[in-house]
Fold:
Amino acid sequence: MPAFVIVIPVTTPLVSTAVAVAPAIGLRDLTVSYRGHPAVHHLSGHFVAGALTAVVGPNGAGKSTLLGALGGTVRDFEGRIDRDAALRVAYLPQASALDRSFPVRVHEVVAMGLWTRIGSFGALQAAHQTAIEEALAAVGLGGFERRWLGELSAGQAQRVLFARVLMQDAGLILLDEPFNAIDARTTADLLALLQRWKREARTVVAVLHDLEQVREHFEQVFLLAREKVAWGPTAEVLKAEHLFKARQMAEAWNDAAPRCRLPS
Amino acid sequence: MTGLTAALFGPFIEFPFMRRALVATLALSLGCAPIGCVLVLRRMSLVGDAMAHAVLPGAAAGFLLAGLSLPAMSLGGFVAALAVALAAGFVTRATPQREDASFAAFYLVALALGVLLVSLRGSQVDLMHMLFGSVLAVDDAALLQIAAVASLTLWTLALMYRPLVLESFDPGFLRSVGGPGARAHMLLLVLLVANLVSAFQALGTLMAVGLMMLPAAAARFWVASLPAMAALSVAVGAASGAAGLLLSYHAELPSGPCIVLVCGGAYMASVLFGTRDGIVTRRLLAASHLTR
Structure:
């Protein structure tokens, strides 16, 4: 157990456009459980504000669980997640977590990004409609407003969900395997959107598998294998020794391992 | 009146009990069918069936304490079914077991307990009445209860429409924006149980599930959106209710099964001929294809 506490630096964003201040998000001895079993242990550190951070690691490393804890969908954790209470968070779950056969139209999905502003009863105003159209145009789906989500390809559906993220206008954007089963063209377009978010000083944390993609587009990497293996600038983290260690840690995992803390 | 109009309207004009039964089935359709649509879209079709069984021990307890008293049996059934839903939900959250298994476990226990309780005092006839009801014996109190629950259901569904749709489509997203997903789910279960209990005297809890799920499953084959599906399923339920009552009257058959069988006929016709993915329709369309 780490006996020290990471001090969270207050960084100022390099570029300031839509988001005035993009505070970092800090972890202090964070242990997150999934369905009663701890999935990631004793994570400490912070996500660099206004940067693109990739969370990588072997299958079952706890990447999605960590992202869920950051996004507020997984609440079973010990330790602390420090972030500005005013920080708006946009969370894009794995594609498999949502029911694409559900009868919703494209513009309705994008409008869901307005939830924090209109909630259950607020009306969609003309300005909102315009914003929805602009968001869809930005992901290359202008004119798709009235289409059913179920009629779209996986790539187009993912573009719709990115448009929803755009509508959320968030300082922290969490993406869980956003490019899984998505064609190269769509991936390239959506990666360009990530660069735009970076220029707007938004903090992006994405769970990814493709290390080449990570090396090319992400400046920070959190290498996870149930515990932190390495966390920092991409070139320093994605070294053979770290990747080897991550693989070993995932393989060496033992359900009957001794408990590091008495169950409360 | 000609023969046909006499056959269609005569029974309702002539007999007050037929009119009451008609009003009861129309009101039941208004509440039950939209709930059924939400359950179908949420892939919870079998939860309705499980809840219907779970009503039994509570209704039986009410019957033991107060005899054939509608308020006692309704209240008992409501409490018992909600308790089963809560217990199943708790086990699902607290253990790795999936929801369908915990629901099955609890409703089977509830069903056995219910049958045991009825047998303590009641007869075979009482048990049949509880499970399958008798729409021709609906009294004022039951009619008012059905109408009240149907009204409450439609209002509540309208008020929680957005969170309910979001929770069905992308629950993780709704949780991440702090939306009332858990509350929407709970309210849906409360409405489901309330509708099953309100259908108790008219159709019995088991037949009520038929009026809930069959029109909803049928509507899915004709229209795409949830509001259209809800409207169509209400129409299918109401029409099946009227047709089922007439069938029951003319053929001298029990009314509850007649209503549900007519709903089943509508469902089968939709499976075959529905414009959205009906089997025969698809065959016909397969002969040609869109040009783009």
Observations:
- DSSP finds 14 helices and no strands in chain B.
- The longest helix of chain B spans residues 16-41.
- Chain B touches chain A through 29 residues (CB under 8 Å).
- Residues 3-286 of chain B form a domain with the ABC transporter involved in vitamin B12 uptake, BtuC fold (CATH 1.10.3470.10).
